[in-house]
Design a protein that fits this description.
CATH superfamily: dinb family like domain
Number of domains: 1
Helix content: 40-55%
Number of strands: 2
Structural class: mainly alpha
Shape: globular
Order of helices and strands: HHHHEEHHHH
CATH class: Mainly Alpha
Strand order of the largest sheet: 1-2
CATH architecture: Up-down Bundle
Largest sheet: 2 strands, antiparallel
């Protein structure tokens, strides 16, 4: 869900909620995805993922590019047009884990700058509060942490608080996401499903 190919018509909540909580949840989600990246074996980069037509390398590359956009949009105030094709193509090179780590550190740093969450960022869907953008990025990292976990055989049980926060974030615009090629149609969750299962089913995953 890179911001230059945006995820269509997300409501701008302005980053509702305590800013320290938004930053904490975002940082934890990025760290969660990062732990899975570091678990990828050399023979798993071409393995399939729950994201249709994406390999493990494609998935990690997608999340890496998302992080690369953050400093440009949040710190620099750049528009989609100004960034242009800067992050097109393969951004992982010969060191995909290192590429992820560097991009993740830079993204967390950009969001954590004083006043950063009060800024306006220019997404392809239009202007948005940086706090809302940060929360959206948190949700995306949580969901894709599960995707990567399943792809590489890692632990699919994500922290309950992360799953709950991601579910609360995505529920208001889940219907819009389902209408894009980035997500499959929702799957009915089983009775008594926990928040992680509800999140995954809402976004077309089959836990």
């Amino acid at each position: 869900m890179s911001q230059h190919e945006s995820d269509t018509n997300r409501p701008d909540t302005g980053g509702a909620g305590d800013k320290s909580d938004i930053l904490r949840r975002h940082g934890e989600a990025i760290a969660l995805f990062g732990t899975r990246v570091h678990q990828v074996r050399d023979d798993q980069w071409d393995a399939p993922t729950p994201c249709e037509a994406w390999t493990v390398r494609d998935l990690v590359g997608h999340l890496t590019v998302e992080q690369l956009w953050v400093p440009r949009l949040v710190r620099d105030g750049a528009t989609i047009e100004e960034v242009g094709d800067e992050f097109d193509g393969d951004q992982l090179g010969d060191d995909p884990v290192g590429a992820w780590d560097r991009a993740a550190v830079a993204a967390v740093a950009a969001f954590s700058e004083p006043g950063a969450l009060d800024r306006t960022v220019h997404l392809s869907s239009g202007p948005s509060g940086a706090g809302a953008y940060c929360s959206q990025m948190m949700m995306d990292a949580v969901v894709h942490a599960w995707d990567l976990s399943r792809a590489i055989g890692a632990d699919e049980q994500l922290p309950p608080e992360a799953a709950s926060a991601a579910l609360r974030e995505v529920e208001p615009y889940a219907d819009d996401l389902a209408s894009t090629p980035m997500f499959a149609d929702p799957v009915p969750p089983p009775p008594g499903a926990d928040d992680l299962t509800r999140l995954l089913c809402l976004l077309g995953r089959r836990p």
